[in-house]
Design goal:
about 230 residues; alpha/beta; 11 helices
Amino acid sequence: MGRMRYDEPAAAAFRTGRHVPVDGLAHWRAAVARHLAPRPGMALLDLGAGTGWWAQLFATWFGVRVVAVEPSAAMRARARLPRLVAGRADALPLAAGSLDAAWLSTVVHHLADLPAAAAELRRVLRPGAPVLLRSVFAGRADQITLLRFFPEAIRLVDDTYPRAAEVRAVFAAAGFTAEAGEAVAQVSAPSLAAILDGLDRDAHTPLRLIDDDAYAAGTTTGPVIDTMDLLVLR
């Protein structure tokens, strides 16, 4: 995973300041349930699991067995789960055909070799297993309230993040079919003040990559109901 190295400060910021309140994720839980169709014994890959927050949610929400893979040692050291597997998207340390689904949350823009990652997902997933991508795609960053106050961050996303059509094309070449795409709402915080009180720039890739002047120019008003895109491939 190549866009940003999750060192100790970034991993600490991610652990403490990145996550949406669980009670703000009702729409995500419903959307995932529709496409995942969870069942007892299902094995789900959480690729780029960070500190294991989504893996923990999936286990609680759906009772599935989660295999959480994360390349950053700093992230793994702060894991909320007993064990995260060290591994990269382009060389997964998993057996062929061993998994029933894959979840990638805000990961696809970090993948230095997306075709290799798609091929690895095709290898480790059973036939017909879904890949669920939660992401901000190029051209869609203004869905995120926080980013609207940092125009340079939106330009960075538009210039360097993949577009949804590009991701679909790469996965099609690896043997996947795009099944669905939808914008899913989330309540990211009870108020903008709540975000700003706990905001750590290191926890947000676009804000970490812009320069200090662009960060300082951000303003501090507005609602905090965001949408992110869910892309489902099989």
